[in-house]
Amino acid sequence: xxxxxxQGGLADYALVKTAHSAKIVLKAPSSSRNKSNGxxxxxxxxxxxxxxxxxxxAAKSSVRKGDRVLVLGGGGGxxxxxxxxxKNYGASHVAVTAAASPSSAEAKRLVGLGxxxxxxxxxxxxxxxxPNNNQNQFDMVVDLVGSYESWRRAAKRGGVLKTGWKGxxxxxxxxxxRYMQIHSxxxxxxxxxxxxxxxxxxxxxxPFYPKWTHFMDTDPTNGNLDELVRLAAAGEFRPVLDRxxxxxxxxxxxxxxxxxxxxxxxxxxxxxxxxx
Length: 276
Known about the structure:
By secondary structure, the chain is α/β, with parallel strands linked by helices. The protein has helices at about 40-60, 75-90, 105-115, 150-155, 185-205, 225-235, 250-265; strands spanning about 70, 95-100, 115-120, 140-145, 170, 210-215, 245-250, 270-275.
């Protein structure tokens, strides 16, 4: 998830390690992108190695059977795939926060991906939210938005998330900031210090606080990417592209794609088509 050299994400060609790749069978461009039938389109294939891979590995390593899970910001690239994997790996109930009223098309899309409840954060405070059965405590909160305030609110005793004593966990993909900027060695130490100290603190005082984890695993090796491609080809999950994707490979379109990505309001994965 973290790279210290340019990765050439918009290059015509790129040299990759064999262990970081997977073989796919492409389907015709005219085929529906929501029905795999054993095949993936080039755009679908481009959408899964980062966001969908992170979603699968997070669900696979963190979800316990019967978990009630709350996903903060579940409509984007990672969230749209995570919602599909949570139930597959044992979650019994999934709620998600989004800018979506209960009757909106976006709410219906999220329910179709696996959410049981959609919390419109513009009208409700998710940390005070109670479902109809009044069982408001979750076993795990997955933070795809990123802020210290989200952690503080989730960790409040008697709140929406169980304590570590009862199995409560807080899994963040972004830490305290959406856009991590490290410009010096001291900045790196500061970032790592906050992450490590909070993880250690919640494990020492786990009876009173949910266990906090910064998830950073997008390792395509050890068969992970092959497994993801197999699941997609078998129709066990579907790659989700934002309805505006794919963007054309020209400056004006690339700018639109990057702005959408930075806005945190994409409804699925943002993809740029380099060539036909």
